[in-house]
Design a protein that fits this description.
With 169 residues, this protein is α+β, with helices and mostly antiparallel strands. It has four helices and nine strands, in the order H-H-H-E-E-E-E-H-E-E-E-E-E.
Amino acid sequence: MKTGIFVSLVTTLLIGYSAIAPANASDAETLASRLVGTWQVMEVVDTDPAGKVSHPYGEHPKGYIVYDPTGHLHVQLMRTPATPPFDAGDDAKGTEQEVRAAYDGYVAYFGTYQVIEAQSKVIHRVEGSLMPSYTGTDQPRPIKIVGDELIIEGTVPEGHFLRRFRRVK
């Protein structure tokens, strides 16, 4: 008799659990947990309101975004082909044009991040940046993760932007 009650109890618990358990393990993962890792840039594309497409870091940019499990991030992206060395042979002695080209061809910032699951959004809380206007700001990014691809895509008054990254394994 005790065995029958035990089997009934276990069966009831298993049936109850299967009703609330996710269909597979990936359903249980949050967007935040799936975002953690190193992501290599694949594509950076901007489209202005008139439909003109540009690749501000070249058609094959290089770089990474890293989201660590402690809530910190860093972003490093560069144009390809890379900016050539300064003619003076000294990074401290570039012409105004050379320095501007180097600045325009690179994005670098670090800080913390927060994922807003319900909005499929990550907020980059920028603590320091190559771009002074970014330091101390929150930079919201609409995101989706499809397999091992991170897609940051949205529309702003200046047009449409698309950033695609591949998870580094």
